[in-house]
Amino acid sequence: MGIYRKTSTKMFGGLAEKLEGELDGLKTGLQKSDLGILYRTYTSMMLLTSLVVLISSFSLSLAVYFLLIQDTLTQSLIGSFGVGLLASSLTFVAMYCYPAQKAKSRARSIKNNLPFAINHMSAIASSKVPPYVIFKLLAEFEEYGEVSREAQKIVRDVDVFGHDISTALKQAAERTPSNELQEFLSSLVSVEETGGNLVEFLDVQSDQAMFDYKQKRKRYLDTLSTYADFYTAVLIAAPLFIVAVLTIMSMVGGEVMGMDIQDAMALGIYVAIPIMNTAFIAFIHFTQPEVN
Q1: Torsion of CA 105, 109, 112, 116, to 10 degrees
Q2: Using CA atoms, how far apart are residues 280 and 209, in angstroms rounded to an integer?
Q3: What radius of gyration, in Å, describes the C-alpha atoms of the chain?
Q4: Whole-angstrom distance between the N-terminal and C-terminal Cα of the chain?
Q5: Mean pLDDT of all residues in the chain?
Q6: What is the pLDDT of residue 292?
C-alpha cells in the first residue's frame, strides 16, 4: 500500500493540487472521516485507481468483444472504451464519496454515544478534576466508539503537540463530523475560558442529552408500533385471506391474471410473500436508530 501511495502521488500529485479547488468537498470529507490520509495522497490514489480500472476494463472488454461477440474492430474499440469509461467513472465517484460516507458513519456513532459519554464526564467532573483529566479518562473507554477516539485525539494534541486544553478542544470541534459534539465542545471551551462552573455545566448537558436520547427512542418505539399494525394487516392477514380465496377458486377452476390458480398460489407463497417480508425487515433495519 505504501508503494502504491508513493507511485500515485508521484504521478498525479501535481494534478491533485490543481484540482483542490474543484474537490473541496473531498478535502472536507477526508478531514472529518479520520482516514489518516492527506488530501493530495488520496486524490492521487483516486486518479491512479480510476486510470488502472479504465485500462483493465478496456482490455477485458476488448477481449470479450473479439472472442465472444466478434464485432468489427471499430465497434469493439468503441464498445470497450465505453465500458472502460463507465467502470472508471464509477470507481472515481465511489472513491470520491467514500470519505463523506465514512464521516457520516462517524457522526452517527458520536450522536448515539455522546449522551452516555457526557453522563460519564459529569460523573468524573464531580471529583473536581480539570477537563484534561476528564478527556484522558474518557479516552480509555472504547465503549463510546468515535467519542472515545475524539477524546484520544484531544489528549494527543495536549501531550504530543503541547497545546493547552482550550486549543485542543477548539481543534476537535473544527474537525469533528458531528454537529452535536461540535456544539458541546464549543460550549465547553466557553465555560473553560470564562471560568464557569464545569460540574454544573456537565450536569445540565448530561440531563439534556439523556432526555433527548430517551425521547428519540420513545418516538421510534411509537413508530415501530405503527409498523407492527401495518405488518399484521398487510403481510399476515391479507396474504392469508388471498390464499384462502385462491384455494376456494381452485376448486371451481379458472385463471388469475392469465395464470393457472395453482401457479398463482405458488408464485405468491414462494416468491411474493418472502420478498415482501424481506423488504419489510430491511426497511425496519435501515430506519431504526443505530447504537454503536
Answers
A1: -170
A2: 31
A3: 28
A4: 29
A5: 87
A6: 46
